[in-house]
Amino acid sequence: VGGRIRPVSLSELATHNTLNDAWLAIRGRVYNITHYLPYHPGGPEELMRGAGIDATQIFDKVHPWVNYDSLLAKCLVGPLRFELPDSE
Length: 88
Ligand code: HEM
What we know:
Blueprint lengths: L7 E2 H5 L2 E2 L2 E6 L2 E4 L11 H5 L7 H7 L5 H4 L4 E6 L7
Parallel strand pairs: 1-5
Antiparallel strand pairs: 2-3, 3-4, 4-5
Bound molecules: protoporphyrin IX containing FE.
């Protein structure tokens, strides 16, 4: 039973970029990958390349066939919220 699903901005995503607190976005969904890091077949340091950012392109370059959404279903934080520039 996880917390609530809620939108995440790019700037909030960027703050979750450490081994103890790592989030990553793929195709508009933000996942908390902290607990998956030790299980990543490519190793934690490879997965950390995508921590705190939209990792869609890195992910697709390495293994577009991997079903990340089912592997990380329980790690979903919420949709990535895109911000408009210069909005006040
Ligand atoms: C394998 C990198 C994100 C799941 C690998 C391998 C690399 C890699 C280099 C190959 C390991 C090897 O064959 O020795 C990355 C990078 C990522 C990323 C740079 C993002 C920055 C993810 C995510 C998931 C994932 C989000 C799913 C939760 C897997 C799986 C394999 C794998 C299942 C084995 C794939 C296979 O053998 O067909 N990864 N990964 N990875 N990764 Fe990732």
